[in-house]
Amino acid sequence: MENNTVYKGKRVSVIGAGVSGRSLAELARKLGAEVFVSDLKKITEESVKAFDVMGIDWEEEGNTERVLACDEILLSSGVSQDIPILKLAVSKGIPVTGELDFVYPYMSGKIIAVTGSNGKTTTASMTGFLLERSGAASMTGGNIGNPAANAAYEKNDFLVLELSSFQLNKVNKFKCDIAVVTNLAPDHIDWHGSYEKYVEAKANVIRSLAPNGNAIYQYRDSKELNVPEGMGYPLSWGKSDNSKKGIYIDRESSAVFICVKEEEEPIRLFDFDAVKLLGSHNIENTAMASAALVLLGHGPADPAIISDYQPPKHRCAFAGSIKGITFVDDSKGTNVAATVTAMSSLKGSKIIILGGQGKGEDYAPLAEAVLKYAKSAVLVGAEKKKIASALDAAGYVSYTIVSTMEEAVEKAYRNAVPGDTVLLSPACTSWDMYPNYGARGDHFCELAKGIIERDS
Q1: What is the mean pLDDT of the chain?
Q2: CB contact set of 10 (below 8 Å; sequence gap of 6+)
Q3: Element of type H or E holding 205
Q4: What is the pLDDT of residue 157?
Q5: Which residue in 114, 147, 106, 121 sits closest to 21, CA to CA?
Q6: Are 404 and 287 in a shared domain?
């Protein structure tokens, strides 16, 4: 770990006062820096109190040129490098450092970096869970509610970090021992400007591998990630093959294998029935977490431990059932790919609730999936008309447009018959109607519970 006198007396500005920005500011202050925090939005009362106690100066609802009175700028996760104040800083030669590069020198232990368009939270949290249950001293953090900066000066054998494309957009010094890319699909195009730039940011996790590090990724994504032939452990569905390194999900034997070295007998990671999570996509998530454990020398995991794992809320989570109708909360399905995955992975006929605030995505692939997998759809939120247009273009007519979540859940339930699943997987963010996807998912679950109590 780096000497903690590097920042002593240094003037540091932090842009962004959210969860990661606050943690960066607090760490910089602990390292002896004079810290100034600037946010375009209003800063929470809790953060203001914390800043005042620590002697951190701040401004809100705008980035003034006070930001430039510093030796270095730290960039909080999610802050675009294209904002005017940063362009001005670069023109003046002020160094701009991303979250991971700043925190990395103060971390300890082997780092497992998990990213991807969908499934990264489940995969990261499961990896951390399996490591903890194996007896390892580990911490799970990053874009999962426990900021990366919280790992500074903590003594860990292993550090599991869920990383967003925002965090990976600006990395130079950060290194990891295992890089996991769960999958690739269009997301955050509005922020990155193009799908190509989004993928480039995700691929930075593989470029950040330490010497002798290992990569885990989908075989189908290898070209987009620009992974050299023979590097790492690609995941694919099919019979295990000891002639190539990789992770194999074998439907025939209902089990998952990893070939660690060519021409060696593949290791059986787990049987499908050990996974209690809904959807075939969670077999992939479990496969990647289990493979990471083996590559770290702590696997295969006990099947009973895999079965004990409980995922974070709002990810294809069972929300109750009545009269043969099942409610599933996938509020975290905030992009088209996530919703397509949920629909294709869950068995049986589905009534899907779609809509929210969009990310600039094309809804044609969503419409094709609805046509293939959904009995009917209920549309709500700011994007409901755009989604309806895409459904019309696909020749899908079994949809209803409503104004509230209450109407959406009731309508979906009324359209369902025994054996059906009412699935909330919006393919959009929640920000038009809710502060976050968690609040949206909680509301859905409350409404489902109310229906179950009413009609039992």
Answers
A1: 94
A2: 32, 33, 34, 71, 72
A3: helix 195-207
A4: 95
A5: 147
A6: no
